[in-house]
Amino acid sequence: MKVLVLGAGQLARMMALEALPLNIDVEAFDVRSDQIIHPLSQQVLGEGLQQALREADVVTAEFEHIPLSVLEPCQQSGKFFPGSTAILAGGDRRREKALLQQAEVSTAAFCLVKNRADFDAAITSLGLPLVLKSALEGYDGKGQWRIKSPEQADDVWADIAQFLKQSSKKINQGIVAEQFIPFDYEVSLVGARANDGQVKWYPLTENHHVNGVLSVSLARAQHPLQAKAEQMFNAIAEQLNYVGVLAIEFFVVGDTLLVNEIAPRVHNSGHWTQQGSDSSQFANHIRAVCGLPLGETNLQRPTLMVNILGIDQLPENLLAIPELHLHWYGKTARPGRKMGHINLSAEAPAQLKQRFAQLIKLLPAEHFPELETMLPRIADI
Amino acid sequence: MKVLVLGAGQLARMMALEALPLNIDVEAFDVRSDQIIHPLSQQVLGEGLQQALREADVVTAEFEHIPLSVLEPCQQSGKFFPGSTAILAGGDRRREKALLQQAEVSTAAFCLVKNRADFDAAITSLGLPLVLKSALEGYDGKGQWRIKSPEQADDVWADIAQFLKQSSKKINQGIVAEQFIPFDYEVSLVGARANDGQVKWYPLTENHHVNGVLSVSLARAQHPLQAKAEQMFNAIAEQLNYVGVLAIEFFVVGDTLLVNEIAPRVHNSGHWTQQGSDSSQFANHIRAVCGLPLGETNLQRPTLMVNILGIDQLPENLLAIPELHLHWYGKTARPGRKMGHINLSAEAPAQLKQRFAQLIKLLPAEHFPELETMLPRIADI
């Protein structure tokens, strides 16, 4: 069996690592270069989407910012999962909000902004502070603005107007204005839906971001909001007749959950599943899109993940910490770039906390800020 | 970092799967074709040993039947682990017996046989029944004879003489005669030794063979002979100044262990470690030969392994059994060929037993004989 993945980054690579033992070959389509790549050897296997599409049994995606010119032939092939509707909803906040409304799940109050009049109306109707996000190509904190007081309106709008002018040359850009949510913390739910409608969810994961980029994810077994999150997952997945792994990010506010955004794919906050559960999100995505039964998703060991950003070397004695696993992506280092991640597990939360403290001491602090803020959270899992 | 593996089969492939996330590239040298292969993409990367040796940081092996013409330049490179002495001991039962004597570990009584006079002397000195094994190229039950009564001597020797005549055209073949051990069952110990002498052992594994080929391996936590096996492992590994994963097969006779044979490499009876322990034998072999700290080897979940021989398809609903993992090797099916394996885990032994019974029902019985003989053994683990 052959699976074609749109995108040739680390997510395709980690899918391929799980697919190979199932005798499923993964090829990756690099949307920018138009090349077909072997995600494990990096060998160029060919050029152009058409032939790869013909040869593939299944097509899927590792990211959602894919041009329509690529999505359309994939959708027409009849073998694209989770399909272009889901990918488009993940890549355009306007479609995403419409989907969340249809699924009747709670979100922050929001409105669409195309011009200054819309912007002023948003401030009036939603109140301040506001978060403004570009509709397209926004991820890892890119294309986001905040306004806290009316005096900032002119400056913030000047920034946004400049951004819109630049990006709308190429694409149908827009802005979504959202009421700022003073959330307690952020969680995500990663789950897999099979083509027969069977769904399995991993436990909720608590996520800590630094400068808009995920820094640490901590799997939380038996979180009191797990069932609520699963209901919301189902509402969204059923709207899309979804097949594959879907990730949903939530704000936790007291005992309520608000959907922040969705990712129609395997997700950085699910990387801990490689060590903490029987079947990782990558294995389950491959199983789902290939029509195979899903693997187990329960938390087997208390586990957390730390992202490695911008550097391609770490002290070798890190691996002396028990149950620590390095996952490098084989990429060339650039400042802020996701280069790999560390998974850390333990027998029990107290041991995980101790090992995490040990890890923090060994990591270069300048590349791993704020890790210690997650330490006290481990007591709760 | 780049590791060159001598041999391009499934063991190199499974090492490469574990090495990639460590940003360690594995290349495989196919001893027969003289080609350098990418073990995950099967791409031919080059030809000839010399250049690959120059480019590699570390050289290791996935099997022990390697010609001296290959072993010698590897040894001379100074980066070959576990090194040619260990590989030669694994590939020649005469050297293996000498090693075991030096290490002062118990084995069956044995003697070397070159001609009919030696053969008759072996019958007299060791008694019947006897097991006779070819010194070279013997594995998976190949090159083995048994003699139970004096009347069989002429027939058995005729077979052996014919075998010696054929194989000694190419190699310095010989025969080792061993006293037959009426063992209770067979176990193996897989362990890893780092270049600083640190050793970690997996739990003893009970092995069930059919026609001389491994069929099922069952990890046994807290086996009463674990400590004894570890002592014997250390005695052998220290003799060899061993670096890497080493496997030792034992006969269990009451409360004693007799070494049957050693394998200076990752071993089929350690495949369960991919699911049952934190760091698999493949990960730990890579860590050891690359000079990295070893990963944890304790049994995290009751786990067993079933070999898939001769077929390249199994019912898809196998994957619906919880905690069942398929590991295919991407090979073309031939009768009796090792095509893949199944790992099965559970929360507790009783659950593993139940899942194994479920698995046995789904497997085509003609390709999986005698599995049910292992069912009652699970109660003990």
From TrEMBL, chains A, B:
Binding residue positions for ATP: 93, 133, 138-144, 178-181, 186, 209, 260-261
Coiled-coil residue windows: none
Keyword field contains ATP-binding: yes
ATP-grasp domain mapped to chain residues: 97-290
Known pathway: Purine metabolism; IMP biosynthesis via de novo pathway; 5-amino-1-(5-phospho-D-ribosyl)imidazole-4-carboxylate from 5-amino-1-(5-phospho-D-ribosyl)imidazole (N5-CAIR route): step 1/2
Leading EC class: ligase
Subunit architecture: Homodimer.
Catalytic activity: 5-amino-1-(5-phospho-beta-D-ribosyl)imidazole + hydrogencarbonate + ATP = 5-carboxyamino-1-(5-phospho-D-ribosyl)imidazole + ADP + phosphate + 2 H(+)
Any Pfam family: ATP-grasp
Keywords for this protein: ATP-binding, Ligase, Nucleotide-binding, Purine biosynthesis
Entry EC no(s): 6.3.4.18
Function: Catalyzes the ATP-dependent conversion of 5-aminoimidazole ribonucleotide (AIR) and HCO(3)- to N5-carboxyaminoimidazole ribonucleotide (N5-CAIR).
Name of the molecule in the record: N5-carboxyaminoimidazole ribonucleotide synthase
MF terms (GO), sorted A to Z: 5-(carboxyamino)imidazole ribonucleotide synthase activity
Keyword ATP-binding (UniProt): yes
Family label: Belongs to the PurK/PurT family.
Protein encoded by which gene: purK
SUPFAM superfamilies: Glutathione synthetase ATP-binding domain-like, PreATP-grasp domain, Rudiment single hybrid motif
